[in-house]
Amino acid sequence: MDYNMQFQWYPGHMTKAKRQMQEDIKLVDLVIELVDARIPLSSRNPDIDELGKNKARLILLNKSDLADDRQNEAWKRFFEEKGYFVVRLDARNRGGMKAVSNVIMDACKEKIERDRRRGIKNRPVRAMVVGIPNVGKSTFINTFAGKACAKTGNKPGVTKGKQWIRLNKNVELLDTPGILWPKFEDQSVGLKLACIGSIKDEILNIDELALELIRILLADYPDLLRERYALDDTTDAVEVLKQVTENRKCVKKGNEPDYSKAAALIIDEFRTGKLGKITLEKPVQEGV
Fold first, then answer.
1. Cβ-defined contacts of 107-111 (< 8 Å, 24+)
2. Mind listing the pLDDT tens digit for each residue in 40-59?
3. Which among 53-57, 173-177, 196-200 has the top mean pLDDT?
4. Is it the case that residue 138 has pLDDT exceeding 80?
5. DSSP conformation class of 86
6. Residue 34: beta bridge partners?
7. Using only C-alpha atoms, what is the Rg of the chain?
8. Would you report the helix, strand and coil content of the chain in percent, each value rounded to 5?
9. What tens digit of pLDDT does each residue of 236-246 get?
10. Which pLDDT band, with edges at 50, 70 and 90, does 152 fall under?
C-alpha cells in the first residue's frame, strides 16, 4: 500500500524517559506493558523488550472489547509463545482487575518462592506500568488501584523519592512510569496509530486517513463496512466514501456533499466500536 500521509512524532524527553526507566526497572519484579488490542505491535515500543529483559513480563491487551475476538485470541497466543503473560482487558472496567491480580501473582511465582526460601514473607510484588502515550496507562492504574490511587504531593520537583502505590497487600506499583514513544520504522505504524486516535487529529488529513482505514476494512471486514453504511459491492475506497456521504446525508451549505464529515464519521465509528469489533493488524501479517 502506498502511504501518502507522513506521520511525525515529537518525543521531546524520550532519552530522559528511557534513562529514568533504566534506573526504575532495577527496583521492580515485574514490567506490566499496555498495548492497544486493535494494533498490538504498532502500539508497542521495541525498547521495552530490551529494558525489561530480565524481569517477569505481563502484556495487557487493552481495549480488547473494541477488537476482534478471534484476533485477541491470536495475539494472546503470539505473545505467550514469546514468554509473556497476557491478559485481555478493558481498563475502564473494574471487573477485569481480579484476573490481572491473579496473573501478576502467577508471573512472580518464582520470586515469591525465592523470598519464602529466604524467610521473607509477605513482601509485595513490585511492578511498573509502561506503554506509549494514549494506550490507557492512567486509566488502568486508576481502575486497578481504585480510590487508593491518590498521589502524595508529587508536583514536579517536589517529591524526590520514588512514589509507590499500594494496590493491595500483594502488589505495589511504581508510579514513575516512563513514557516511551512508538518507533515509526514504516509509515503504516503511524497510520494505524492515527486510526485509533493516538496522534492528534488536528495534524492529520482526515479524508486521507479515512480512505486508508476504508482500504483496510474492505480487505479484512468488508461485511461490517457494507452492513453499517448500506453499501453496494464496490471495492473502491473513494466510492465507499462517496456512498457513505450520500447514505448518511453528509451535506454542507448549498447542498454540496461533505466528504470530510463522512470521513470523520467513519473514523469515529471505528474508534468507538460502532462499526464492530475490529483489529487492524494480525500476527501472521507481521511475518512471524
1. 107/30, 107/56, 107/57, 107/58, 108/29, 108/30, 108/56, 110/56, 111/29, 111/56
2. 999 998 888 888 888 999 99
3. 53-57
4. yes
5. E
6. 60
7. 21
8. 45, 15, 40
9. 999 999 999 99
10. very low
Q: What are φ and ψ of residue 260, in 5° steps?
A: -65, -35
Q: Kindly state the cell numbers that stand for 101.
A: 491480580
Instruction: Report the predicted TM-score, pTM, of the whole model to 2 decimal places.
Output: 0.87
Tell me the CA distances in angstroms from 66 to 71, 185, 277, one per residue in order: 11, 26, 5
**What is the layout of strands, in order, in the sheet containing 125-130?**
85-89, 56-62, 30-36, 125-130, 171-174, 164-168
The Cα–Cα gap between 71 and 93 comes to 21
Phi, psi of 250 (to 5 degrees): -85, 100
Write down the mean pLDDT value for the chain. Answer: 86
Q: Which residue has the cell 480510590?
A: 147
Q: Are 186 and 247 in contact (CB under 8 A)?
A: no
What is the C-alpha to C-alpha distance for residues 153 and 147, in angstroms, rounded to an integer? 16
